[in-house]
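Hey L., structure's done. Input below.
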Amino acid sequence: MDLRELDKQLLQAHADNDVPALIRLYHEAADRAEQNQDLDAACFYLTHAFVFALEYGAPEADELNRKLFERGRAHRLVF
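Output:
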């Protein structure tokens, strides 16, 4: 999926209030940003994925928190 398609899917997931898709898509956007060596963008997307995961009670919250912690952007939480 190219970046335009990812953006389109993110907008649609927001419009549909599809939280599992938002978690997945923001995580994917973070991975892409990190591959492009843009740590600030990666952490921006990871934070969004993390917040949605927390609100939804999704198990991905632990992994997302770990990634943010490893990048110096969050305290490590215990789930």
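The helical segments are 3-16, 19-35, 39-56, 60-70. The chain has four helices and no strands.

-- N.
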